[in-house]
Amino acid sequence: MPELPEVETTRRGIAPHVEGKIVQSLTIRQGNLRWPITESIQQLIGQRISAVERRGKYLLFIATSGTLLVHLGMSGSLRIVPKDLPVEKHDHVDFVFGDQRLLRFNDPRRFGSVLWTTDPPLQHPLLKDLGPEPLLPDFSGHWLFELSRGKTVPVKSFLMDSHVVVGVGNIYANEALFKSRILPTRQAGKISWQRYQVLAECIQAVLKEAIDQGGTTLRNFVNESGKPGYFKQQLEVYGRGGLGCNRCRTPLTEIRIANRSTVYCRFCQH
DNA sequence: CCCTGAACCTGACCGC
DNA sequence: TGCGGTCAGGTTCAGG
Which bases of chain C come closer than 7 Å to a protein CB? Predict the structure, then answer.
């Protein structure tokens, strides 16, 4: 589920239901996530959440004297649900508010995380070394070009490194490379400044488009309102290996880079 | 420092 | 119907 557009869609969906609310209680049914949930999270009880922000794919719930960090991993989701909604499989954590609602974290694979920190959140070890936000001005082709010099990794792996830029996961790395007509296997350090300018613009375009759409989703994504989600209708290459390229009709090539599915057009991309 | 591959975990799907 | 293998949207970490 969660690439950056899905996380941003989640943030926008839940923020109005969470901001200004006081956390009345927590229900932790399964605390064994990517990292175990610590006892210190109990400090959140009684605190007011002033804002829901996002850094990369982390959601930041800014509380009175600390921050709740939530990462959705591969299969996590957050929904606002009525207090009496029956618990389902993989509903690991509930954040209960004073009204008739609660925030429910569900994550079948448990690669997600729920962390409490009293440090300034951006100084948290998991956040402090993250690269720029792709949709903010400090991200640019110039940044990609400078950082990539001397690097021999495939440009696709380079893009997916959160120390380079946050929020570009496997789906949108494939899509942005197709749009910019760059071969995913090309060595990051051998790509010109001009091409990185194009690539940076394509990354932004692809992410913005997906956010506008409410997030591209696979299978049974359920959004924060509990309504059925969207499907991967507008993807050009991801999930389309062997099917015709939308530009030239050549069957798309599917390979694995760093063990991740990679789809591209061997004629359009070079 | 750079890069690769393994690890974390469940569920869906495919071939036999 | 069952079983084993493979794959899935992410990220960190160990090891060469």
Answer: 7-12
**Confidence category of residue A216, pLDDT binned at 50, 70, 90:** low
Q: How confident is the model at residue A234 (pLDDT cuts 50, 70, 90)?
A: confident
Please tell me the distance from the alpha carbon of residue A94 to that of residue A193, in angstroms, as a whole number. 47
The distance (Å) linking the CA of A255 with the C1' of C2 is: 31
- Considering only CA atoms, name the residue closest to the C1' of nucleotide B4: A258
Q: Note whether A148 and A159 are within 8 A (CB).
A: no
CB under 7 Å from strand B: A 32, 34, 75, 89-90, 108-111, 150-154, 157, 189, 258-259
Query: Protein A156 CA to nucleic acid B16 C1', in Å?
Result: 36
Distance in angstroms, CA of A236 to C1' of C16? Answer: 37
Q: Is the CB of A126 under 7 A from strand C?
A: yes
Q: Answer yes or no: are the C-beta atoms of A130 and A233 closer than 8 Å.
A: no
**Which tens digits make up the pLDDT trace of A60-99?**
999 999 999 999 999 999 999 999 999 999 999 999 999 9
DSSP-derived secondary structure for A176-238: HHHHHT--TTSBGGGS-HHHHHHHHHHHHHHHHHHHHHT----TT-B-TTS-B---STT-SST
**What average pLDDT score do residues A129-147 get?**
97
Rounded to an integer, what distance in angstroms lies between the CA atom of residue A152 and that of residue A147?
A: 12
Active site residues of A: 2-3, 57, 260
Reported as a single tens digit per residue, the pLDDT across A162-179 is: 999 999 999 999 999 999
